[in-house]
Protein 1
Amino acid sequence: MDMPYLPNISHILGALSIYDLEDTAGEALWKYDPNNEKDRETIIILFVLKDLMYLSYRHRSVLMSILKDALDSPGFDFAKEFESDYDEHITMAWDETEIADPRGFFADIYRLANEVWKDDLQKASLEDPSTW
């Protein structure tokens, strides 16, 4: 709790890592098509955002801030965030070749997080992050 939070864009997709959970989390996720707009919203709200609720409102604010920075960076490679890393025991529900628009996927995460977490993000914006 007293350690600094060092966010990483890959943390956002933690709920989509199904290593050793193919029969549970994998089956639940594979019911949806990440390239279908409605399915993608369901994936983001029911899995991605819900999974990040364990973070404090401050942590989620910082995470959304780095996501915004990445989205504002035209050269940021969002596809790499969907790559599995078997050495690190990370198997993504859909790999980078299955996501038609990785940047759009993350843009939707940002948009929906700002809707779902509106009150918490507003609360964080009223504070001075240097005091956290």
Protein 2
Amino acid sequence: MLFEIASSVVVAGIGGYAFCKKSGVSLATNDAAKIKRIFENANLGVKEEGRKKTIRLHRKRPIDGGMEYVYQMPLGMSFKEVESHKDVIEDGLNVQAAGLSISLSDLRKLKFNRTITKQIKRLLTKHKKARKEIELGFDGMLRIRVYDEPLPSLVKWKGQKISGWKVPAGMSRRGMIEHDFEAQPHLIVAGSTGFGKSVFLKQLITALAISKPDDLELTLIDLKDGSAFRRFENLKQTMYFATDPDSAGTALKQAQELMNRRLREYAEKGYEDAQEAGIPKRHFIVIDEAADLGKEALEIVKDIARRGRGPGFRLIYATQYPTTETIPSQVKRNIPARLCFVLDSATASMAALDMPGAENLPEIKGRGIYKRVKLVIVQTPFISNQEIKKQIAVHIRPRKENEHEHAANREGRSDTFVFSET
């Protein structure tokens, strides 16, 4: 009996090996050696004593979904130089020298029984579809994380309430990245049309409305005829709403006046900002397609970006045409946090992120680069319009109340705060 099983396994193994050879599959792949070869071929290194010195493998370790390789870099070689060749390294790892390659880790997962041939066929199918992706890091050593499969192309919005003023920015390799509007009060969002910018803004507004219904105030400006934000116009939290450059200027002026009133109130009470005054309210100004703002409106945006943090005003400045004109330097200096989707050129990426990279993102809706201190590639959460309608229904004002609210906004609103020491 044992002899029959052993014979079957051996035959199956030989059959699987023969199948791989017939399919042109290499059974010996060493990503560490491949990376070193890529560096040499790309001329990444420094000359020392008449010869070219490049990276040297220090150690490697398995990580979730792949392997991390840690390299010693020669003196004189910069991490920025390596970062600029990320696409070269990634493409090189996905080049198959002789058909398809299967790693040793893949082979270890095989069960050598009568189903070995079927297992290898499934493995081949998987590898034909899979594409390796990498993450780069530097902490004195060069860290290259190689993932056997790409990030998921769809991350569904789960509807969980946010903690504090932290909003999901996107799923990374290490979990969900959150943007904390208390730590970084403003955010620039850029990306070509159709790649997820407006969907991200809608999920952000939805998350804020359902999590902070009593502490949230909104100024919503949608300069694409209101197509994305119209569903939020009648939210109880929406104070000012605009869909064209003229009404946008008016809405921003009202928001600026409100900000100034609150600054005066805090100063009169001896408080530095909303947090010290114990005021929980936060006023979010969300602008979709800010490139269409008029000159006067843009000056107000610059002022809010500069002075808005203290009185609790938060600016989300979004555009699909990032240039030095559409994102003024005063806005960029006051908003270090960025979220950037696919862009059509390195020039546009430089305008949005201060570095190239967004032009090399895969053309996947919702795939972006989140920048706070370091760059992180993320898949932003997707929420359907039907789900938005369901989630915000309880916060929609009745028609009569809505008309009264708009009349109050036109006349100007006064604020009454109860100050408490925190």
Protein 3
Amino acid sequence: MTMQFKNLIGGEAVSASTYSANLNPSNTGDVIGEFAAGTKADVDQAVAAAKAAFPAWSRSTPQERYEVLKKASDEVLARKDELGRILSREEGKTLPEGIGEATRAGQILAFFAGEALRLNGEAVPSIRPGVGIEVTREPVGVIGMITPWNFPIAIPAWKLAPALAYGNTVVIKPADLVPHSAWALVDILQRAGLPKGVLNLVMGRGSVVGQAIIEHRDVAAISFTGSVGTGRAIAAACVAATPMKKVQLEMGGKNPLVVLDDADLKTAVECAANGAYFSTGQRCTASSRLIVTEGIHDRFVAALTERLQGLVVDDALKAGTHIGPVVDAKQLETDENYIAIGRTEGAKLHWGGERLNRENPGFYLQPALFTECTNQMRISREEIFGPVASVIRVKDYEEALAVANDTDFGLSAGICTSSLKYSTHFRRNSEAGMVMVNLPTAGVDYHVPFGGRKGSSYGPREQGAYAREFYTTVKTAYTFAG
């Protein structure tokens, strides 16, 4: 019998009139569960619960917030194998990647448990005699969160943990393709001791649930990760709202990996294979533009092709699988359309790009490598969000840097080189929020800021101590002592 998962509102499981099936992309005959399809009325109830809980939670002690987050972290880490399997079953990334992501969620919760105790302020002398100034940080209010499907437990964790650590209350809507991971995380946090109403989960369609959260007058801030088009619409709505809302957006990338003639070939190939194809290329930090100088170009393409030929594409839960399926039929169609566009534009499909059949029906796609690309082709400029990468041949470092920066995005950028001169120059002149040297463009730590420039990000950074810039508001208080 298929399990039903209800919305979690005001500390209670709330039934829905309709439920949606959650399918395993590695085996579309496997129904993971039936998940509540929320409505505007559910959002209204959740926001009311969060608003009612805010006064007490915002004035709770740092120790109380620490204990809840630490207890939740302990459970996530103790259950990392189980949670990783839930994640891989519904999203399609390999089981080791799923377990790794669940582990990261636990680490994020532990970090922000500590941050609850580390929040501080300033006592500042005034320019006027007898006046004291105190600068403090306070919680913002009810935070609305809309999270994507590609990191279904890590991204909810890195939004929820700072929001709760700094005393906010939350209404979260996970991507409707992957509700189980977020449901499990919210359930853990509630049982860790959160008062009723502090954290509320409403599942369902973005056009219904997400829109209702964005438009609700009592939601003070919106944190969103997803597409550029949706992000722009959210930003406009938040500015136009009365009262205006704080907004934080993470919206993707078209990330370059520069490979110079002096690069270690094995390192460069591993950076490219990992960054472009692991997690099925479904990462906003994926290196989908491989910008390679002439002297190493042919050797790099040959070695990368050999590496791709050895990668196993199969069921995410199978031992030995390197790349799982694409998340769903719609994304698979998008990937195949871009492969067709690349060929039409004149790029050479050097290897892969074919739909694959496996033991169970699923959304399997062979990694695609294009060569003879230019930076003006659509496959070099638009985010595909699949296992597709373009090799762009350039003359030298100067041209490589110019091509790397010639993009509407600016999330992550990488360079493979043995030159201290070029690596230093690239770090300083790359127009990206994160820069990697001899490392994949995908893969970041949880205790430092995450975010980009241009069309990739808008608003304060996520993760690390920098998260407080979004989840708190600054108050300056003056006192005349006489």
Protein 4
Amino acid sequence: MKVTNAYQIIITEKFTQSRAFYKKLGFTPVFDGDWYCQLVWSTAPSVQLGLMKPGHETQPPIFQAATIGEGTVLTLEVEEARDAAEELRNAGFEFAVDLRDEPWGQRHFALLDPNGVRIDIASPTAELSPEFAQQFKETGEGAMV
């Protein structure tokens, strides 16, 4: 199997609010229907997200239930989380987790979307502790460190 892309679809009763939230965050719609919206990040088009109303007749039952948000994390990796935090705070976003550095080398903060989906905005720019450094595997391009 050759994977060419991956994206999350959030099935939501709060379709309109979610679309507005993700557009304010920085996503741009490339398909914007009344039941489905496909969003991309303008400077990184492979970063995508779908929003869909629940119970739509075009979808099989497995794809009709709305998310409850619990247990879902959408991570957006940025060049520097400190800069992203300042930008989003100035844009009026409320943080569910304030900016912090983790010993595994990640600097991050978190938002909640209108559905309760956790959005972790992270950069690999914090100091990496020796205890965590030894746990990273050499995986090539795209590794966390």
